DNA sequence: CGGACAACCTGGTTGC
DNA sequence: TGCAACCAGGTTGTCC
């Protein structure tokens, strides 16, 4: 569920709450979410570690712990990280509870059980599945128009598919991909290698804009997403095309269409995002 | 290379 | 009301 803006919102919440706290215990209600090391070792290694700092890479959330350990979290579709200042009985779909010395709990809640965590030492980042293949952070300098254009030039796949692959930029998901393509006026089926330099630049700017707007709105809450305080975001009220099949395009009032690309539902305005090129 | 599809899971919505 | 079908913000693996 959560894409870059949602993960970043949670990270900022946790950055205010966790640094300085020491993990006293971890209860695994569904140990399957622990990918590395084995669940027993995971719990043993977490105990007594302090949270020093939070971080994020694409949709991966990091808690930097003492002794050089890194706790990496991927929330996938329905994962939530919920902080409670006092003891809280676990909800139905709570999969793990981190309790801190002196009070406070972090609950990992995940209806669909897709979410995953890893606990690794520095230099063992390759233990974290998928992390290595990530493209640049879209809100940092490395995500230049030239870089995006080069990524596009190398593949014939639809531009929507490229955006979802995480290779061109880390952290874009289904919602922000559709919103960025709308903002850039590009048809989601456009072959990536048919984008001109100007179009790639426009898309790069659009990606950065929608992600920044998403963060400002504290994320998009459609069904499952909540921040670390259990609050909804508000970007769902600002979506132009995503989830708006049959409703009017805000620019031209043409009905928004829904199609399936790369197995994912895709929303666009057939007029504002008419197919150009090939 | 990349597309199509299934898998991993559970729950909510839609339509008959 | 019941029930089946379809849908869901993500990633990985298999087959062709």
Q: How would you sum up the major sheet?
A: 5 strands, mixed
What does the average pLDDT come to?
96
Ranges where pLDDT stays below 50 over 5 or more residues in a row are none
Helix content: 10-25%
Can you count the beta strands? 11
Count of individual domains: 2
CATH topology of the largest domain: N-terminal domain of MutM-like DNA repair proteins
- Known CATH architecture of the largest domain: Alpha-Beta Barrel
The gyration radius over C-alpha positions equals: 20 Å
Count of alpha and pi helical runs:
6
CATH superfamily of the largest domain: MutM-like, N-terminal
Task: Describe the structure in brief.
Helix content is 24%, strand content 22%. By secondary structure, it is an alpha+beta fold.
What does this structure look like?
- It is a single chain.
- With 278 residues, the chain is of the alpha+beta class.
- It folds into two domains: 4-127, N-terminal domain of MutM-like DNA repair proteins; 145-268, Helicase, Ruva Protein, domain 3 (Orthogonal Bundle).
- It has six helices and eleven strands.
- It has helices at 4-17, 39-46, 145-153, 159-164, 174-184, 197-216; strands at residues 23-28, 34-36, 51-57, 60-65, 70-74, 79-84, 94-100, 105-110, 116-120, 257-261, 264-268.
- The strands form three sheets. The protein has a five-stranded mixed β-sheet, covered by helices on one side. The protein has a four-stranded antiparallel β-sheet with strand order 1-7-8-6, covered by helices on one side.
- Helix 1 runs parallel beside helix 6 (197-216) and helix 3 (145-153) crosses helix 6.
- It starts with a helix and ends in a 10-residue tail after the last strand.
- The mean pLDDT is 96.
- The chain binds a DNA duplex (16 and 16 nucleotides) through residues 1-3, 6, 59, 74-78, 93, 110-116, 129-130, 155-157, 161, 164, 166, 173-176, 220, 222-225, 242, 262-265.
